[in-house]
Structure formats: structure tokens, C-alpha cells
Amino acid sequence: MEEKTEFQTKEIIRKHEFVNGLFLFVKALIIFGILLITMEKNYFVYYKTQAIIALIVGTSFFVFVLRKNDFIAPIIALILMCFLEVVDTHLWRYVPFSYMFTVEDFSGVYEGNKISESVTKTEQIVDGYTSVLKSKISRNPSKFTLRINQTGSKISIHSFCYKNDKDKIHESKSDMMAIRELENKGDYELIYHFNDIGTPKQGRYSGTAHLNITRINDDFSIEGGFYTNRNPQTRGNFTELKKIGENSQNPFYSPRYLRD
Which contacts (CB < 8 Å, 24+ apart) does range 69-74 have? Predict the structure, then answer.
């Protein structure tokens, strides 16, 4: 009878250890999944170091205080992820959440001019030496609309170039972005790579643009330049880009277009 009781006790202990192990595995799996989602979202790319430290300390404090609750760690991790998502998509531009970020809100629609030129290179052999001659063809200024979309963790740019009568020239979207704050607080230098998204009638192309974003009172003004990999290569400047609003419809009549 005692042997049977001892066997039953050992069996109960084994089941209890199995359940505890399974429980820990599920908790670890939940926390790991939440961490993977957080890393994929890249929430912290524009966070200030102090804000990240405060989040770590605050999360650790709540886990420690409520440690007797078996599921408190995954629950707090889930709450933290929801908080980061809401801040990233909605609250990041508003005080006090805006103090958590290194980049201000300069999103919106900017309109101005684009001045471009084509650069051709011609090789010339004189007395056995090869020299490269560059020739430039300037183009008439065209109208330019820059739409900057921004969240707490991502900046994207959608641009439209057209003539005064809204005749389409080209449309592009950014795919890579780098930004740094200049010495004048509130001014930024933004460099991005873009791709032409028109119909490949004359072949798609890509390029790089740099923007100087300057604070003027409570708004921003933008100037900059660009170059492309077109043949012949084109390059030029953006001038007098002023903010006209937060959102705007596509200035082209259709999101897809044919270049002339």
C-alpha cells in the first residue's frame, strides 16, 4: 500500500513538473513571438535613447511588482506591443509622446518647382589620349509635388512631376531612406533612393535625392537636388517647396500613366 502511494506521489510530481514545463514553454513562446513582431516592426529606429531606457525600466518594474501572477510577463509584453503600435501610428506626433522621438513631424504635401538637366558624355581621342567631354542640356522648370508620409518608425516619399497644365512627366516612390538632424535644431537632411513607377514605355529608372528640410516658425520649407541613372543621366534641383496641406489627392488623373 505504501509502495502504491509512493508511486502515485511520484506520478503526481512528474505530471506537475510536465505541466509547469509546458506552462513555461507557452509563456516563452508568447514572449518570443511578441519580441519577433516588435523587431520586425522596427519601432525604435527614431526613438531617443532615454525613451528606450524608460520603457525597459518601466516594463521591468511592472513585471517585478506583479511577478506572482503566472502570466504577467506575456500580458505585459502584449500590452507593451499594443502601446508601441498605437504610439507609432497615431500618437507619436503629439505631446508628450513626441518627446520620445529624434525626428519631428514634417509630413504633408509640398509644392514647388523642379529644374533638371541632361548630362551626356562623349569620348574623344586626341594624339592617342582619350578625353571625356560633358555636355548639358537644360530643361524648362516643371511643377513638382512632394508627399511625405510619416509614422513614428517610417518615412516614405511619393513625388509627382508635371507641367503647368498638369501634363504628366513622371511619378516616383522612395524605397530607402536616411535622415539626420542638422546643427540648427529642427532642421534635417534627408537622403532617399527612389524608383520611377510609371509604365515602362521608355524604361523605368531610379535615382537618389537629398532634401534640406528647414523649419520656418511652425512649418517647414524644403529644397534639394537629385540625380538618376537614366541614359543620358539627368540631375537637377528642387526649389521653393512649400507645404500646402497634410493630404492631397494624386495630382495625376490616374495612379498609372504613360509618359509622352
Answer: 70/23, 70/27, 71/27, 73/27, 73/31, 74/27, 74/30, 74/31, 74/34
Q: How many helices (H) and strands (E) does the chain have?
A: 3, 9
pTM: 0.76
pLDDT in tens, 161-219: 887 666 677 889 999 999 998 887 779 999 999 998 765 555 578 899 999 999 888 88
Return the closest-CA partner of residue 80 out of 64, 59, 98. 59
- Dist. CA 102–CA 93, nearest whole Å: 11
Contacts 24+ apart (CB under 8 A), 42-45: 42/153, 42/154, 43/84, 43/85, 43/88, 43/152, 43/153, 44/153, 45/153, 45/154
Angle between helix 49-65 and 72-86 (nearest 10) = 150
Contact 144, 170 (CB under 8 A): no
Containing 190, the helix (H) or strand (E) segment is strand 188-196
Question: Within the chain, where are the H helices?
Answer: 2-41, 49-65, 72-86
